[in-house]
Amino acid sequence: MKYLIIYLVLISVVTVAMTVYDKRIAGTGARRVPEATLLLFAALGGGVAELMTMRLIRHKTQHAKFMIGVPLIIFAHVALLYYLLFILKIFGEL
Questions:
Q1: N or C: which end of the chain has fewer CB within 10 A?
Q2: One pLDDT digit (tens) per residue for the chain, 94 residues
């Protein structure tokens, strides 16, 4: 469980850093972070951090794939966690 928390913190920090970086270089002509990469990191566990950062810095908020996709990713993670914890009881006593 400790390693899962460490992983989620690290993936969230990387996700926030990439999103902020992409916002900073937007409009400069520099190479941007691909949207697929931002969505991948959200799917790997940085979804909550991605959504909070997008709202905070107003980045990608006009893109349906982010404003619908990221909450769907978060919902899928919550559903998977519920399934693992309560249906399969895979983690036992926490």
A1: C
A2: 789 899 999 999 999 999 999 999 998 989 999 999 999 999 999 999 999 999 999 999 999 999 999 999 999 999 998 888 888 777 665 5
Q: What is the pTM of this model?
A: 0.87
Whether the CA torsion 9, 11, 16, 21 is positive or negative: it is positive
**Host H or E run for residue 4:** helix 2-25
Q: How far is Cα 85 from Cα 33, in angstroms, rounded to an integer? A: 35
Q: With the CA atoms of 55, 61, 66 and 69 taken in that order, what torsion angle do they form, in degrees rounded to the nearest 10?
A: 70
- What Cα–Cα distance (Å) separates residue 49 from each residue in 4, 25, 53, 87, 90? 16, 20, 6, 27, 26
Run of H or E residues at 30: none
